[in-house]
Amino acid sequence: MSKPKVIVVGGGLSGLMATMKIAEKGVHVDLLSLVPVKRSHSVCAQGGINAALDTKGEGDSTWEHFDDTIYGGDFLANQPPVKKMCDAAPGIVYTMDRMGVMFSRTPEGLIDLRNFGGQKNKRTAFAGATTGAQLEYCCDEQVRKHEAAGLVKKYEGWEFLSAVIDEAGICRGCIAQNLATMEIRPFIGDAVILATGGGGMIYGKSTTSTICTGSAAGAVYQQGVYLANMEFVQIHPTAMLGDDKTRLMSESARGDGGRIWTYKDGKPWYFLEEMYPAYGNLVPRDIASRAIHKVCVEMGLGIDGKNQVYLDLTHLPAEFLERRLGGILEIYEKFHGDDPRKVPMKIFPGIHYFMGGIHVNYSHMTCIPGLFASGECDYMYHGANRLGANSLLSALYSGTVSGPAALNYIKGLNKLAEEAGSKCFDQELKRQVEFDNKVRNMKGKENPYQLHQEMGEVMRANVGIVRNNKDLKETDQFLREMKERWENINMVDGHGYSNQTISFVKELKNMIEMAHAITIGALMRNESRGSHYKPEFPDRNDEEFLKTSKSRWTPNGPVIEWEEVDTSLIKPRKRVYNVSKEESKNAK
Amino acid sequence: MQNKFINLKIKRQDGPNSPPWWEEFSIPYKPNMNVVSVLMEVRKNPVNAKGEKTNPVVWECNCLEEVCGACSMLINGMPRQACSALIDKIYEKTGFGKPIVLEPLTKFPVIRDLMVDRQVMFENLKKVKAWVPVDGSFPIGRGPRFPDREHRWAYIISRCMTCGCCMEACPNVNAKSKFIGPAAIAQVRLFNTHPIGEMHKEGRLDALMETGGIQECGNSQNCRKVCPKEIPLTTHIAAMNKETIKYSIRRWFTK
Q: pLDDT tens digits for chain B (255 residues)?
C-alpha cells in the first residue's frame, strides 16, 4: 500500500510551518522552493509579530487584538478565522520562543513587546528589527531537523508551474521545473499546499523580494481557482525609494518613537500627529500612506519639492536605537549613505503586501479539492488593510491550519494520488512541456524585462494609493494589450542551462493575469475601504460592498462575483483614527 | 553626469562543466546604482561592450536589502553582497569608470555565470545539529527565560544569512579540506547558549570535533573581516575551541 504524501510549495514562514506540522505527524513532505528556503521573502519582515501576551500590565487581551485587526481591516475579513488567529497568537509566539527565536528581552528575561500601528497596547514581540529573518531561520532549522530524519525532501531551485487535476476535479500533485537543468517533471502528492507569498513584483518596484511575482497563484487562477479581494494591496507608508526596489523602513521605527514630518511655512509639521491626535504616527498603514500622499502630491509640501517626507529618529538615544532598530538603520545607511541616527530618513509610500489572494475556505482549501493555499498568497486574515506585525502572525498561523487540514483531507480520500493513474499527470506534463518549448523559441521583438518595467509603472501610477475609474479602465485596456505583446517577446537568452529568462517570461504571463484581476477588482469596487481609495466614491459603502470580491479567470478577462462577509462577532462600525477606539464606537 | 558609463568585467561560465570566459559591459551611469541594478540593466538590453548581442548574465539575488544572503559574489576580488555594493562607493575608491570585476565565489561549484551552489553550507548546518530539539511545535506555554545580557551577543550570531562570504575568505576551506567553515561553528555557539538547545550541547560539540571540524581553523581571521552581518566569527570560534577542549578532557575522564 502506498503512503500518503503532501507537497508544500514555498519555503517561507507559512510553508515551513505547514511542513513542520505535517512531518510531526509522520507524513512525508516534498518541499518545493524557488530559492534555498532560508532565503525566502519572510526574512524581509522587520518590526515584529503581534500576540496579546499582556505582559506590560495594560490589560491586553486576544479579543482586543481581534477587534483591532477587524477594525484595522475595515470589516472586510471574515471574522471567525481572524478570531481564531488572534486567540492562537500567544501560543505561537511562545512556541517560537521555545524553538530558539532570539526575541528581544525585558530585564526580567521575558519577551519584550513594542508598540505598532493601529493598536494602542504593546502587543508586538520582536527580535531587534529582523523579526522575520529570526522566525524564518528558526522554522528553517526545525524543518532541517525533519529533513535530517528523512521526513522532508527539499527541492530547492524548483519552480511550481501548475497543479495536476484529475477527471474528477481533484488535485493529485503538481508540475514543476528545475531552474538549473530546466527539467520539467510531475510531483505526486495527495494534497498540495501553496505557500507562495504575495505579488509585489506585479508593481515592478516594491518592498518585496524579486521572487514575489505571484506567479504560482496566477497559474492556479488560470486553472479555475478563485482569487479574492485582489484590489486590496497594502502600500507601506515608509519606504526608501531606490532604482532597483523600494526598501522597507519598518513601522517599528514609529512604534519605538519615530516621528513623521515635513516643512510647512518654514517650520516642521508633524502632520500625522496633527491629523490623528489619538494615534499620531501609529495610525494604520493605509491612513498614513494617504496622508503622506496628500501632503506631497496634493499640497506639494514634500522635502526638497520631491515626493518624500522625513521619518525622524534623531531625538532617540543612540544605544536604544542600536539595540531596537539596528537592522533597519544599517539598511538605510548602507543603501542611502546618511546616518539615520543623526539625519532624518527620507521616505515615501511603497507597494508592500497583498491582503487579497487565493480564495480558500476556513480550512485553507481552494475550490479544487486537495489544493490548499496559506500565507500571503491567501486572502483570509487582513480584510481591506493589514495591521503591521499581523503578517508574520498570519503566515505562521495559516501554516498551523493548512498543514493539519491537508492531513485531515487525506484521511477522507478513498484512493491516494499514487493509485489514481497517470493520465492526468501525462496530460498536464505535456501541456507544460509544450508551453516551455513555445517560450524557449519566442523570436518576437519585446524584451521581457522592459515589458515588466512598463507594466509596473502603469500599475503603480493607476492602481496605487489613489484610484480613478477612468485610469482603471485605461489599465484594463493596457493589460489586454500586454497579453498580446507578451506573445511578441524575444527569448533573449539562447542558452539551455539555468536560463532565468525562460522562467521570467512564464512568470510575467501569470503576473499580467494577476494584474488584471487587481485592476478589475478595483474598477468594480465603487467605494473607499481600507487600502482601496477612490476620490469619486470617498466613503465606505457597506450596503453594496461589504462583500468579498471573487475573481474568476476567463480568456476574456476576470469576471467578478461577490460573496457575503461573516461579520457575526463584531458589528461593523465607522473607522476613525482621530479619536480613540472607545469613542469611535459612538461615531456616526 | 551625461554620457558616463559604468564598466563591468564579468567572469562568465555557461554551465557547471564549461570553461570560464570574460565579457565586458558598458552601462549608462545613474546615481545610486548598485551591482544588482546594473546587472538588471544588462538583461534589459543584453549587449556587451563591443556592441554584440549576448546572453543576459545569470546571477542570484532576492531581497536586495542584504538580508537573504543570495547575491554573494566576488566584486573586485572581495566576497560581498552585490545588492549593497553601491557603484558610487566603489568608484570613490577606484576612480570613475574603472572596470568593476565580477566573479562567482570560488569555493563553491558554479551553476552558471555568477551563480553558485552553496548547498554544502546547509549540509554543514545539518552536521552540527543547528536547531533546538523541542518536543514539538504545539503550544505548551511560555518558553524559558533568557537574560538580555546573553541575548545581545547571541542575537548577532542569529543574523547569519548563510551567504558564504566567510567560507570564500577562509584559506582553510578548499578542495582538499572538509572544513565546515566559520558560519556553522558560530551557529553551534548560538544553539549551545539557548536554554533548551544547551541540554543537547554534547551532540553539537561531538560534531565540531569530527573530520572537517573546528581543528581545521587556521586562525587567519579573514572570516570576521568579510562578514556582511559583522558577526565576530573569530571570537565565537575561539570560544568553541575552548569548549571542545574542555569537553574532550571531560569526556576522556568519564570514559
A: 457 999 999 999 999 999 999 999 999 999 999 999 999 999 999 999 999 999 999 999 999 999 999 999 999 999 999 999 999 999 999 999 999 999 999 999 999 999 999 999 999 999 999 999 999 999 999 999 999 999 999 999 999 999 999 999 999 999 999 999 999 999 999 999 999 999 999 999 999 999 999 999 999 999 999 999 999 999 999 999 999 999 999 988 886
Of A166, A281, A315, A195, which Cα lies nearest the Cα of A577?
A281
CATH architecture of the domain with range B5-116: Roll (3.10)
Q: Which residues in chain B have Cβ-Cβ distances shorter than 8 Å to A346?
A: none
Distance CA B157, CA B168 (A): 18
Do B5-116 and B119-253 come out as alike in CATH topology? no
CB B69 to CB A38 under 8 A? yes
CA geometry: angle B87, B92, B97, nearest 5 deg: 60
Name residue A443's amino acid. Answer: K
| Strands ordered across the beta sheet of A28-33 | A152-156, A28-33, A5-9, A191-194, A371-373
Residue A422 to residue B163: CA distance in whole angstroms: 41
In this structure, the number of other CB atoms found within 10 A of the CB of residue B121 comes to 23
As to burial, measured by CB atoms within 10 angstroms (0-12 exposed, 13-18 middle, 19+ buried), residue B141 is exposed
Of A20, A109, A209, the CB nearest to B146: A109
Q: Which of B44, B158, B196 sits opposite A137 (nearest CB)?
A: B158
Q: Domain coordinates of chain B in residue numbers?
A: 5-116, 119-253
- Strands in chain B per DSSP E: 5-12, 21-28, 72-75, 78-81, 100-103, 110-112, 115-116
Minimal CA–CA distance to A114: which of A97, A126, A132?
Answer: A126
Using an 8 Å CB-CB cutoff, list chain A residues near B190. 100
Q: Kindly name the residue from A254, A259, A285, A540 that is annotated as catalytic.
A: A285
- Cross-strand pairs, B10: B23, B102
The fold for domain B119-253 equals Fumarate Reductase Iron-sulfur Protein; Chain B, domain 2 (1.10.1060)
ipTM exceeds 0.90: yes
